[in-house]
Write a structure and sequence with these properties.
By secondary structure, this protein is mainly α. The chain is built from four helices and two strands. It has a single domain, classed as Helix Hairpins (Orthogonal Bundle), CATH 1.10.287.70. It starts with a helix and ends with a helix.
Length: 149
């Protein structure tokens, strides 16, 4: 039993690492592409900022769905624990839980059990870092494109 727990924890750690690498690469790519798009736009500066904000929000939504898919897979695999509470096992419940965790709101109506808890911790940390990265990106873009008029 002890060796099986270690194997499950090791595999959960590997899954967590892959997910974090994926969402960080996704975020980097979105910000690079947004920067290029904003530089090429010939519209009003304020519209560029709206495009930047919408692009960042779409990126975060896609990242939440990546974590949600991992919750769904890990919850139904029986080896890594489960999600309990106000949870019916659906993908949409996983998305709701992922949004709550990514944004560190954490309502507490769904609770992770087992090795799945590590994914929730790393998602909260990743969400904090990625949201901060987005805020920094938007701040720089506002400095460049906000004319005050």
């Amino acid at each position: 039993m002890f060796a099986e727990d270690h194997a499950n924890l090791l595999s959960a750690t590997g899954i967590n690492a892959l997910i974090v690498v994926l969402v960080v690469l996704m975020h980097h790519e979105v910000l690079v592409r947004l920067s290029g798009l904003l530089a090429k736009m010939h519209s009003r500066h304020h519209f560029r900022l709206v495009v930047a904000v919408l692009g960042v929000l779409l990126a975060h939504t896609a990242q939440v769905w990546v974590f949600a898919a991992a919750y769904f897979f890990m919850h139904h695999a029986d080896a890594w624990g489960s999600l309990t509470g106000n949870f019916n096992g659906s993908l949409l419940d996983c998305v709701y839980f992922s949004f709550s965790t990514f944004t560190t709101v954490g309502y507490g109506d769904i609770e992770p059990i087992g090795a799945l808890r590590f994914l929730t911790g790393i998602e909260g940390l990743s969400g904090l870092v990625l949201i901060t990265w987005s805020a920094s990106f938007l701040f720089v873009k506002m400095q460049r494109y906000w004319t005050g008029s």
